[in-house]
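Researcher: Hi, I'm a grad student and pretty new to this. My advisor asked me to get structures for two proteins we've been looking at. I'm not sure of the right format, so I'll just paste the first sequence and hope you can take it from there.
Model: That works fine. Here's the first sequence with its structure tokens right after it:
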Amino acid sequence: MRLAALAAIVAQHRRTIVLTAILTTFGGVALLLDRPEGSVLEWFGLPFLVVGGAVFVWGAWPHGKAAPPSPPSVAARLLRRLTWDGRLVPFFPAFGAAIFLADLGYNVALSATPALQAEDTIVLLAAASLVGYGIVPSRFARERDFVLWFSLCLNAILVVPLLAARTYYSDFERSVDVYSWVALAPQTSAVLSLLGVSNSVQAVAGSTAPGLTFTPQGLGIPVVVVITTACSGIYSFGIFASAFVAFVLTEYDTMSRRVWALLGLGLFTSYLANVLRMVVIVLVGYYTDTAETDLQNMLIAHSYAGWLIFLGWISLFWIGLFRLLPRGREEVQPGRLATAPRRSGTLCGICGEPLTPVVPATRCTCGSFFHRTCLGGAERCPSCGRPRPSEAAPSTGG
């Protein structure tokens, strides 16, 4: 009984559970791609990914056998256009296999090491999403499109520019340090200067990454922080930006000005959080490190505080997104909870329309009312997840 009651409580907060699962899943992806080596966080990547993914599948799993396919979205329309009205979709597995073989061939022929790197993981994610696209049931169309667009956007942000730069410079070992030079080191330096921390940005011998020089108060000698790829936060930014773009594309029917503004705000917030992360790391070293600590405090902040700050900042943004912004669709499909504006009287928990004596309705033990036609063949209550109650006398609301 206690387990059933707990399951009912969790079902009532399904959206919160799904949000938590998304954050946990992408936290695990971030840790796997950009592992903070030498810290305990290095071991949390796979557990976060597995647990978060499992909870997300549970939370997003439709209840009832008659769950309809997802409504039209920007992602669905864009995919139809890119696939020649769907004619190329049957070839997705072949495309995925070709991408997989191309990545392995690149590692063997051009890369300095055949070992799988972070970029390889990203490419293989896109290949897997293409291979499995056609076998996902249509009732999971929205989730399927989200995964596909997330993997494609992740490659567009993190892999394609890197390949273009390597091709342009004929240097297949070139890293993404250009991001640190252009969009991270100067901005971090400017914020630190505003906070009264004297610093400078310059090249470092033997490295393609920029170095930020400052003098900790308790140390008395200049310290150079080399902002390499692992320190840049580019992977964290790419993961959030890709997830957010995929979310907007799959949740909205049209790209209105409001949606474009929302998309721009999400990307800017992600970038700002990354700059804030670097500022906090340097401030920890500037104010707390001494000759005795030997910059250990700053290294700890790099391994723990920086990652937590970025994830915390993005979590607040997602929470605000779910709570304050309207959904992208006005039509509510059967089997999904209504998100329409509130109306007077007792409302159907699916279509949002008032209950009347004309249309038969039923009531769940959790207190939710539904038109029987809206509930259809669902075996569980869309509100609490309990098994559908046996047919009783029609219920009406005033």
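Researcher: Oh nice, that was easy. Here's the second one.
Model: And its structure:
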Amino acid sequence: MSGGDYLAVNRANWDDRAGVHATSHGYDLQRYRDDPAALSHVVRFDLPLLGDVAGLDAVHLQCHIGTDTLSLARLGARMTGLDLSPASLSVARELAADTGADIRYVESEVYGAVDVLGAGRFDLVYTGVGAICWLPSIDRWAATVAGLLRPGGRLFVRDAHPALLAVGEDHPERLQLDYAYFETPDPMVWDDELTYVDADRPLTATRSMEWNHGIGEIVTALLAHGMELTALVEHRTVPWLALPDLMEPAELDGECRLREHPDRIPLTFTIQAVRRAG
């Protein structure tokens, strides 16, 4: 099936998810209102590799309802959040207002980020878990990242590992590769009323479109657009129960791992890269 209408399909899906996620225990937005030092589990995991972001001009691509964006702002970064879903941004703006955070939120799909935000304006491009699978071209993503960064600025991305995303969920006794590891022209099309956190209602905009991108494809795209790779780390945990029959909570809060033989497959990766001068 062609992915030509992927933006409209995925925007509707994420608009629907926004309301569900805003009231879910998994996101627990009240925690950020009650505790001015609260950080998201995702950003807390990232901290040892992310380092000090205080004083940086940073943009969070595909920011959804803004919990990671708010967390980075609390660490001292001057934050901009960008997302294609107006419903998600409405929740994010309300959370920022409730917590007194000075965050700029902009509605746009990723490939339009340079047009709406400006070229070379940021010291840091941050992308969190569960983001790049919604994009059909990793090369266009890498061009966008490089276009947003100042010379010397860096990318930080932790996301689901393409090896994990190639594993099917319908095999409770084993890991089985059912889906493409590499980027393909046509998307994987899903029709699912469930989301990845607890929900008080099923989704109504149930269709979504995704693409996998191999680690080599991601690195090659970044290098092709003037980025210098500075770190590549593969992790044994992922911040949701991606394979419910095969996983259990890990020692790190909010993370999950394989119940048996957790060294078999990487579940997430972190890539850092710097935009070369010139």
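Researcher: Is there anything I should tell my advisor about the second?
Model: You could mention this: The first helix runs from residue 6 to 22.
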